[in-house]
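ok here's the first one, seq then struct tokens
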Amino acid sequence: MKKLLALLLTLALSISMVACSSAPATEGEGETKETLKVAISPDFAPMEFVDLSKTGQDQFVGFDVSLAKYIAAEMGKELEIMPMSFDACQAAVSTGKVDMSISGFSWTEERAENYNLSDYYHAGDNETEQVTIALKENAEKYATLEGYNGAIVGAQSASLQESLVNEQLVPAGAQIAIYTDINTGVLQLKKGDFQVMAVATGNGDAIIAANPEVAHTGFVFEIDPKYVDNLILLQKGADDLTAEVNAILAKAEAAGLYEDWYAEAEELAGIDSAADVSFDDEGNVAQ
């Protein structure tokens, strides 16, 4: 009798297991999305910065973050924002630590040689002009090229601004001072480590909004049209991924999303809880 009961129990359990295995999965159940890893340097409002009122991945905001979210959604992937220094963003793409970096990049010959570059995307007027800012009390001194003779000009390492200062201001008698992140650069400007700071015009507006003692000088760099818009950095040889990204960029542009994203980013950059925050190469907040 015991053997019969055991046999019946085993049979019932087997039937139950078959039924469970053949039952349709609940929608979303057991699905695991692939992750799209995107490096950003969140010290560059309104492109990418931190909303201190939020936590985790939600704290990263700005035009490029909106773009990253859109790309991930179009690919059907889960977005993972990986914050790090601007230099580290580029290294992370080279080594394959991330899939791409979306961090206010402009075209440069060096980047074209060492990375796959996406098609251009237009982030409002952030890159339309490249300018300089200074303490308000000194700003007028640097309105013309002649004013830079003997001046020390700060620029972010590996940035378009570094190239422009070397090409246009150093020959006029300026010295260049390199900083790793923009937040540190602003502090150095206010301390007097250098007199002028080279920035994209949109970033300059955000810096001035948070630092009323800083002002635009009125100086505007001469720039080639290829520097005006932004692009995404991908690993050299990642041609299929680059083509997929370009198709998504074209879709976003056709839908008129760029203008909305930039307007939202500009508005958010002015709130009290928003800040440019520096991260080290491991993604930790720099002290």
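and now the second one, same deal
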Amino acid sequence: MKKLVNAKLIDFGMLDSFSPSDDLLLSLDFPEYTIFPGFCDVHVHFREPGFIYKETIKSGSKAAAAGGYTAVCTMPNLNPVPDSADNMEIQTDAIEKDAIIDVYPYASITVGQRGEELSDFSALADTAIAFSDDGRGVQSDNMMRKAMLESKRLGKMIVAHCEVNSLLNGGYIHDGVYAKEHGHRGICSESEYKQIERDLMLCEETGCAYHVCHISTKESVELIRKAKARGVDVTCETAPHYLVLDENDLKEEGRFKMNPPLRSREDKLALIEGIIDGTIDMIATDHAPHSEEEKSGGLEKSAFGIVGLETAFSVMYTHLVKKNIISLEKLIELMAINPRKRFKIPLENDFSVWVLDEEITVDSKKFVSMGRATPFEGEKLYGKHITTIYRGKRVC
């Protein structure tokens, strides 16, 4: 007789339809397994349209399912950029044709993500999960204010990649000890948190719902913590690599290059504290696949971005839960429940099944994603994915 472990982990108030069938469970050939509601990642790059040599809707959604995800939100740095209804339709047609889970597209904040003119918010509001220029920060205060007011009017959210271009100075890793010792150009922490500081002021002024992408610095955590205490309508995310790695883990390989970069140990500890105290609302992967050639230029010349959908849960379970930093229930809130609540993404009969105490070794050659760049290559982790069920049917 099979033992069901945490078959209904906890009642988060969203699990009315979370009811995996006995027939399905009994067909799984494992003596003990844990069932979770389908994970939700609000920050992925599936590269279609425009860059299908990196990833497609089909390959990306399959990779998500292989990581236990049944809902993802795709960023708009595409070609064409989804800044109009016609451009968005190219992406939604591909989603309807090829996605095997729920895929919710972002629309861009500005036309072409150039920061000069607002996209057609009214025409895009019914289709877009939210508005973002991810990959670029909106440099103009006035442009971001207009975007927030328009989002407020339409009942949508602004989701911001925060980066002050004038502070980048050609940097490509954190402006810290490693950069100085190895002769690399650094990206200062101020380039992130100064734009967050500006946006929080504008959010407070306009009353817009606001979400901050992939925070990486201790100052960002503190700014958001204080804004929440003032009642600002803000949430934020960080990614697994920022919670586990820091600049001391860098190697001279493209698989360690992402934006924002791996920061200092103090930044990592502040992010963990933000996870514990609720300042950071959710974990997102910023899954950003590139070709092997694009990631072969070391830290300086490789493209920014790593993949993460297929490793996220195991990395977090191994490094946060098994080390008693957070509970398993807290991790599921961060990966499944909080993202759905904030982005109003329903949870249907979607779940994934895991053997938690089985050890795996990260092998990017076995990834479903077309991307292979991961800083966790070769690492031994706990948590083996068995299957993912979407709308009551097995998709992985």
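notes on #2: Confidence is low (pLDDT under 50) at residues 1-17. The two ends are 24 Å apart (CA to CA).
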